[in-house]
Design goal:
The complex is a heterodimer. By secondary structure, chain A is α/β, with parallel strands linked by helices. Chain A contains 14 helices and 17 strands. In chain A, strand 13 and strand 14 form a beta hairpin. The N and C termini of chain A lie far apart (47 Å). By secondary structure, chain B is mainly α. In chain B, helix 7 crosses helix 16. The longest helix of chain B is centred in the N-terminal third of the chain and has 24 residues. Classes of the chains: A alpha/beta, B mainly alpha.
Chain lengths: 444, 331
Amino acid sequence: MNSFAHGIHPPERKNLVADKAIEIIPPPEKVILPLLQNVGAPCEPVVRPKQDVSFGDPVCRGGAPVSASLHSPVSGRVQKISVTTLANGRHVKAIFIKTEGEQLSGRALWEEIFGGDWPMQNIQKYDPQEIIAAIYSAGIVGQGGAAFPTHVKLMPGKKKTLDTVLINGCECEPYLNADFRLMIEAPGPVVCGALLIGRVTGAEEIIIGIEDNKPEAVESLKKATFGTGIKIAVLKTKYPQGSEKQLIQAVLRRKVPLGGLPPDVGVVVNNVGTAASVARAVIKGKPVTHRIVSVTGAGIADPKNLLVPIGICFDELIKFCGGLTMDAARLIAGGPMTGFAFTNLETPVTKGTGGLIALTQKDVRKAKETSCIRCGRCVDVCPMNLVPTRLALASRQKNLDLLEKYNIQGCFECGCCAYICPAGIPLVQLIRAGKALSVASKKK
Amino acid sequence: MMPKNRPKTASDEKAPIPVLHVAHSPHLCQTARTTQRMMIDVVIAVTPLLVVSFFVFRWYAVKQIAVCLAGCLAAEVIFTKMRRRSLSLSDWSATVTGIILALSLPGPAPWYVGVIASFVSIGIGKIIFGGIGMNIFNPAMVGRAFVMIAFAGNLAASGYVDPMSPIDAMTQATPMDAFKQTGATATLSALFWGLTNGSLGETSAVACIIGGFYLCLRRTASWEIPVGVILSAGVMAGIANLADLQSHWTVLHHLLGGSLLFGAFFIATDPVSSPLAPKGKFIFGVGVGFFIMLLRFYSGYPEGVMFAVLLMNALTPLINHWTIPRTFGEK
């Protein structure tokens, strides 16, 4: 079976919510819409306090080259434009909206977002420029977690020809089920979006990659893609299969050059959630207002998959799922391998948030850090074939030459090394510090 | 869930609430393989060797192992106290050093040889470099090398033999020495099962293989190292056989005899003093096998595992330098 080199097998723990159909959370009393939810520059507000907005109205414009616009997921009134803190610790400006009046909710909301017809034939009739424009004005960013603006990703330099579109349905992080449920419950927009992305890029081949621990998703998409020419690649379940470079290696046997991006080998990778948003933007002209979030972990009383408005606070999600258990110890936005721990429950959900995980004291139990015994397990598991222990040492010593020699910028912080380390060394944290050091030294 | 509209009471204020904390990613880590667990794995893996040594050498083995264990643990306590560090016996590394050291010594060696070897192993082999993980050389082999020079008589080939001993195996020369001196060859079955004279842990090939396989399956030892040792030693022994077809000491004798398997599985695989990357580990193993055979053929000693490992330990930083893995996508 296709796979990539190295990697790890963390406990999957997906069964907590894997069989639970997506529920629609009732409209919250307020939403907080951070102006920076994506990689790149923040967007610029186009509303003022005390202004009324209705569902789907643009509230921000993504003016900068790498930026994405933002829309109100509720009807209501803008309260203020103030600062909020994201789960990753960044303080950013945000638009606070108080919901007022009639709201779309329940089944009607589901129909609004995923319902209706999703054309899978005659995609040729959609003009690539118009598709890009629709993606731009819908404010779509990568929904797998990285949140890179999608219209930028689909317009690589003119010189690079793209021959393959990969749609990422791996969801290799433990616990998460947002993409899995989407593929089962709404395969239509995923497939339609994949075809549209194929149209934009002019790629001959469209392949959806799914790990073999999700046979239901494979079945669902096989049915949905019938007659479209889209291929499904079933991949070995291994972390980090959902990383772009690893996915490309597993499916196409191509290696993205160090420091390069997928277009360098003629590929563009998009998450299944992103594909669904693209379909919604192009076919229905509707922006990104909601997303699917897995609220799960042993620290959540009643774990669920939820369809939530962007900007809803995490405490609403926790309340809707029965609250935290007494032994809850760490809240994580995103997956447990790369997500961010946070404590302020007023933190809003962003476009890239695929999960809210409450780990218990038992899950996060960690032995004291001991000395590196140079066993080389971090080298054995690193999907980028780096030497994490040396990078960590170089970072501790602030040795810039050594950091460069061991290709620190190749690390994408998947966390395999720190997961496997028998000495409990915080390798990822050290490497992150080293990266910052290396970047700072180059700016000088 | 609390019923709604109930007035708040003092007890509600004090109701326990979950205590949250933050940390950096990843938020999961495996707990099955800690440094401590790796050390315990080694202790489990040497059990077959201990059993054979108790069976063959009786109280000689009991005494030597007790002396080295006590010596290493005492040395660890004393030196750690001198460095004013918190005591680290719970990582089991001193226990492992003690056992491996004892198993590499001859049974008849007097108690003070074991004690001195233990103190040198822990003190000069490990602590002086900064403790666990920092040493360049395999600590047990440093201790053994020291007593081999300091007490040459006790550790020379003759040191293994005690003509007055009630134990059969100990009245005879070690198979490697007998061959070197007189050309006498031991039977392969004796070498396989371990009913010969020799260092306490080295005699039984089958015990070394069982323990070694366990270590490799648990990934506590990297399989690249023993494979490298056995391959290169086998090839060199094969060439030697071809050069001298009359010799009765075949490739299998070379592999099963002496401490080659003990060294390959238990000594060379010390993670601290061997290279980091798989390719480097293999090169390291090949080097160890090569030097073992070179010493067996040309040195005055019948066996060369200890010096071969120490020599390759010294080359480990160089091997690491040569074998930095090529980063994914690097040209």
